[in-house]
Amino acid sequence: MRPWLVAARPATLLAAVAPVLVGSGLAAADGVFRWNAFSATLAAAVLINIAANFANDASDAKRGADTESRIGPPRAVATGLLTARQVWIGTAVVLAVATGLGAYLAWISSWVILAIGAASILAMLGYTGGPWPYGYRALGEVFVFVFFGLVAVVGSRYVHDTTTPLEAWLLAVPVGFLVTAILVANNVRDIDTDRSSGKRTLAVVLGRRVARIVFAALIVGAFSLITVYAVIGETATGTLIALAALPLAYSPIRTIATSTDGPELIGALKASARLHLAVGILLAVGVQL
User: Fold this and answer.
1) Integer Cα distance of 259 and 263 in angstroms
2) How many C-beta neighbours within 10 Å does residue 233 have?
3) CA 110 from chain center: how many Å?
4) Are 72 and 186 in contact (CB under 8 A)?
5) Structural domain harbouring 77
6) CA angle 85, 60, 275 (to 5 degrees)
């Protein structure tokens, strides 16, 4: 199982959990929460994330982006743990299960879920694959914000009663900011190897200094929006408890801003993922207070 765990990148799967918690917390606050909708949505979100990691592993290896000089954790195809064919078969299997869950969610809610699922799968496959991989054209952060932020939070709320309250859209923005920050941290870490392999991420295009500023701005922006929403009464006052996670932001911001050391940047990436999850949990609780 180890090669498949390497390809699945377990540490990144938290990014799929937080938005589902927020959307489901909103449903609970509105008295429409359904356990079957929550469970199926969470499982589908994590499976699509795993499929994305599988596809990226195979695609990046094919394009030569995962070289021996890469700082991050090993990649399954590039290191020979799995063949590209095995990983693509694994991708198909995982997507088949996710599609089955999507069909179930559509059955208990609306056909709109099928459209959301199809768009998510196409976006996942197009990140580093296909004829125009947008992850190589500095658009990865835009798609992550849209699909792991807006779509994930609002969609997770929608499956419970087929409504999309304004509060879901508002909270989807800071959640999207934080998950986008995770990708920025990843790309700052890989900036040198990405540049040498021709992978033009946002960090490569902007340069390390500006990318560091973007990372900090996304995190500060997320907490600022959470505060403003609650103060002006657009979201529940209880969402202010998410500010309790603010101390967790100091370490990754400082590390990204000052370090070029591989292990430290890997630690900052993991810390960013933990921050995202912590805020997601606290928002899910806060909307009910």
Assistant:
1) 10
2) 8
3) 24
4) yes
5) 2-286
6) 115
* pTM given for the model: 0.94
Q: Is it the case that residue 66 has pLDDT exceeding 70?
A: no
C-alpha distances in Å from residue 99, one per residue of 47, 61, 162, 233, 272:
10, 26, 19, 38, 29
The per-residue pLDDT for range 217-249, each reduced to its tens digit, is 999 999 999 999 999 999 999 999 999 999 999
Q: How many domains does the chain have?
A: 1
Q: Is 80 left (phi over 0), alpha (psi -120 to 50) or beta?
A: left
CB 169 within 8 A of CB 249: no
Residue-wise pLDDT for 75-103, tens only, equals 888 888 999 999 999 999 999 999 999 99
Instruction: Give me the pLDDT at residue 221, please.
Output: 98
Rounded mean pLDDT of 96-123? 94
Q: What is the 3-state secondary structure (H, E, C) of the chain?
A: CHHHHHHHCHHHHHHHHHHHHHHHHHHHHCCCCCHHHHHHHHHHHHHHHHHHHHHHHHHHHHHCCCCCCCCCCCCCCCCCCCCHHHHHHHHHHHHHHHHHHHHHHHHHCCCHHHHHHHHHHHHHHHCCCCCCCHHHECCHHHHHHHHHHHHHHHHHHHHHHCCCCHHHHHHHHHHHHHHHHHHHHHHHHCHHHHHHHCCECHHHHHCHHHHHHHHHHHHHHHHHHHHHHHHCCCCCHHHHHHHHHCHHHHHHHHHHHHCCCHHHHHHHHHHHHHHHHHHHHHHHHHCCC
CATH number, position 138: 1.10.600
